[in-house]
């Protein structure tokens, strides 16, 4: 499912809302999740899962094309851990 499909589904299930309002609501939710993670905070959606940021240490890597050693800088990567309800539904529970 992509964002536009999500907007259509939410708008269809809530006929009292205009589609442009649903788009704004969903954009606001995603923006808040992104902003919180950018600040290093954890975002938890009960039953769905939690988003957090993991830190990857700087390391020595290898260029696969040339075989040359390269320095890989420290970076922060998004991490998602599924909630129990989502995990159970995915596994047929």
Give a verbal description of the structure.
It contains three helices and five strands; from the N terminus they run ααβββββα. It has 93 residues and is of the alpha+beta class. It folds into two domains: 41 residues; 52 residues, IHF-like DNA-binding proteins (HU Protein, Chain A, Irregular). The protein has a three-stranded antiparallel sheet with strand order 1-2-5. A two-stranded antiparallel sheet has the order 3-4. The longest helix is centred in the N-terminal third of the chain and has 20 residues. It starts with a helix and ends with a helix.
State the domain count: 2
The backbone outline, from C-alpha atoms, is elongated
Question: Helix share of residues?
Answer: 40-55%
Strand order of the largest sheet: 1-2-5
Assigned CATH superfamily of the largest domain: IHF-like DNA-binding proteins
